[in-house]
Amino acid sequence: MNLNWLKTFVTAASYENFRETSEKLYLAQPTVTVHIQQLEKQIGSKLFMKSGRRVMLSEAGRQFLPHARELVEQYETSLRHMNGWRQGYHRKLTIAVSPLIAATVLPNVLQQFMKAYPSIEVVVKVSESNEIGEMITKNDADFGLSRMKSLQAYVKNEQIGADPIVLVVPHDGGDAETSLPLSLSEFCLRSTLLTHNHPDYWEDLLVELRSKYDGVRTMVVSQVHITKRFIEEGLGFSFLPWSSVRREVFEGRILQVDTEEIKLPEVQTYMVYQHLSEETEIFKQFIEKSMN
């Protein structure tokens, strides 16, 4: 069975349009039609039915689609395996990691790990913390690094590394010696608090802030890197993990403000896994050593 016919069929089943399929696969539209016709001859059934300008899967097409997808996926997996083998990889480790950890902790850890274990191919899947446990249970990843505990049964969570939350505000253009001290109360009265950029601490923190500063204005910004950019542009202030703002503070793009007006929490990093293969055990030990 011709693999190109299968790939054309799987793509056409997704778009239900031969013109869009041809554009996606960089094929002439008549070529798409020929591929489908040849596959139909081999299967012995019509795979599509016309519906105006579009096409839709026939019952035979719906029955065949999961098998076609599996064949295409097996082929692509074998290509990736051989490509890794040619590069000297003999084992593979897939890590699911939250965006914040991927942008802060992971690069340095991975750099050291890949030097120490060049025969292990590392695949990084960046996912939200609340999705990582499910990825582990479905075997979509071997190991997870998350900012919240996973609730799935049989998934283990091990806490590693505390990250303090700090108050960060736009740079006021002054310097540390001559500028007046900044305070949380000033920002709560005259600026916008950018919230919910981290999955763990915002609800409790907002309760405490609102109990002390009535009418504080808030704006939900769901990603840390966007929050930092908004702060640089003077759109508001926020409470963020120190690891995520360290570079911007050192470079003077935003300011960290010490405050004793409220008690700031810490957030944890969790190692998430189900079964420890040799590769995951190696990585677990490595990251424990690196972060401690």
Brief summary:
The chain is α/β, with parallel strands linked by helices and 292 residues long. The protein contains twelve helices and eleven strands. It is 48% helix and 22% strand.
What would you say this structure looks like, in words?
The protein is elongated, with a radius of gyration of 26 Å. Strands 3, 4, 5, 6, 9, 10 and 11 form a seven-stranded mixed sheet that branches. The chain has a two-stranded antiparallel ribbon with strand order 1-2. It has a two-stranded parallel ribbon with strand order 7-8. The model has no long low-confidence stretch (mean pLDDT 87). It has twelve helices and eleven strands. The chain is an alpha/beta fold. It starts with a helix and ends with a helix.
List keywords for this structure.
alpha/beta, two-stranded antiparallel ribbon, 22% strand
Low-pLDDT runs? none
- Continuous helix count: 12
Indicate the proportion of strand residues. Answer: 15-25%
Order of helices and strands: HHHEEHEHHEHEEHEHEHEHEEH
Give the class from helix and strand content and strand pairing: alpha/beta
Integer-rounded radius of gyration = 26 Å
The mean pLDDT is 87
Measured between the Cα atoms of the first and last residue, the distance is 54 Å
Query: What characterizes the major β-sheet?
Result: 7 strands, mixed
How many strands appear in the DSSP assignment?
Answer: 11
In helices, the fraction of residues equals: 40-55%
Shape: elongated
Secondary structure layout:
Blueprint: H1 3-15, H2 18-25, H3 29-43, E1 48-51, E2 54-57, H4 59-86, E3 91-97, H5 99-103, H6 106-116, E4 120-126, H7 129-137, E5 143-146, E6 156-170, H8 184-190, E7 192-195, H9 202-212, E8 217-220, H10 224-232, E9 238-241, H11 242-250, E10 254-257, E11 266-273, H12 278-291
Helix pairs in contact: 1-2, 1-3, 1-4, 2-3
